[in-house]
Amino acid sequence: MTAVNIALAPRPIDPSVDHEIQGIVSGSLQGETCNTDLVEAPWRFDTVPGYGPGASEGDVIPTGAPRQGELPREYREASEDELDARITAAKNTLGDRVVVLGHFYQREEVVRHADYVGDSFQLAGAAKARTDAEAIVFCGVHFMAETADLLSGPDQAVILPNLAAGCSMADMASIDEVEQAWEELADVYGDLDTPDAEGLLPVIPVTYMNSSAAIKGFVGRHHGIVCTSSNARTVLEWAFERGRRVLFFPDQHLGRNTAKAMGVPLEQMPMWNPRKPLGGNDDTTLDAARVILWHGFCSVHRRFSVAQIDKARAEHPGVRVIVHPECPMEVVDAADEAGSTDYIRKAIEAATEPTTFAIGTEVNLVQRLAAEHPQHEIFCLDPVVCPCSTMYRIHPGYLAWVLESLVAGDVVNRITVPADVADPARVALERMLAAKPPAAPAAAWEQAS
Length: 449
Known about the structure:
alpha/beta; 16 strands; five-stranded mixed β-sheet; EC 2.5.1.72; 17 helices; transferase activity; single chain; pyridine nucleotide biosynthesis
């Protein structure tokens, strides 16, 4: 008998992290999750202070952080299939009156209903571009919805399906802390809003997109700019053209990794701890500083380690390791590449030969990429399934509720930024949108209808 080569189709991969967590907790799948409470629906935690189960569960949430009211019972008791059908029906009824934006880190059951999917930079552009929509439903976290409100028209309503979907990193730099730091830096450098003889300001404030509208407004008032992981280098170059040094917040790792790649020595990047006088520094250290890094971080990306990379290389010879620049410097240095969520997605799409990828970013994106590209082996560097606590708060039940409320003529969970904050924040955001890197990221990709 002659042997025949049979080409087997790649085995389908379930893109749903929720299904994987349910399987792990029930025992039907092998694996480990960081908290078995992740199997519960997020409304169980809406009345409990904290970010909820997931990567940020150990972070301290500020007093007065937004809470979500009780979701009506019909949405809490509906099955996954029923919610899927109700969301689809509501969107069909609303048509072009509504646009749904979905961040890459959202659960699959939500992302499938998004009209545009992308990172924070791309979705900011999508919010600005959809001037025809009466309502923008932002399936992401609070600072993203604020940004959409800043960039959208005054007659457009921006809706966050769950008000408890905040961001622990954004909360690590409050407006009071930043203003206090600014005053302390003025004691060291003099008037921070007056340029020197060469036309350079003593400090240019740069805030990561993962920050409140109040912080963006502060930056806009003080000649600064917003950045994302897609354009951080371009933004720092912009800032160095205008100032002697940069105050970068709230994520120390993105700031450090970006500046280090630009040749800034580590000794010229002191940390600013808002709980210590002068951030824990002295005048000499601050005088020599080029980038002052705020003591903040992303709890998702802090989970990745060099040991995980070493294990991936040992078990998968030839593996290609790509991590997000919010990871600690040692992890970025040990990886093959570092880049934004959009960079990671494009790198995988561009791989023409079957490749093994170990990815250091939020697990929902990694799982989705694995399902979309079964010709590759794609896995998350962290073997423990631990999604972003706050992205996890957006559930199809909340999406169905806000959409059906719109059908009934009610706008719920609207996010608005006061005018005194919005005006300077828009200035900082417009500077960000103009700071396109040489290979600028594409616009958020539109879901096929």
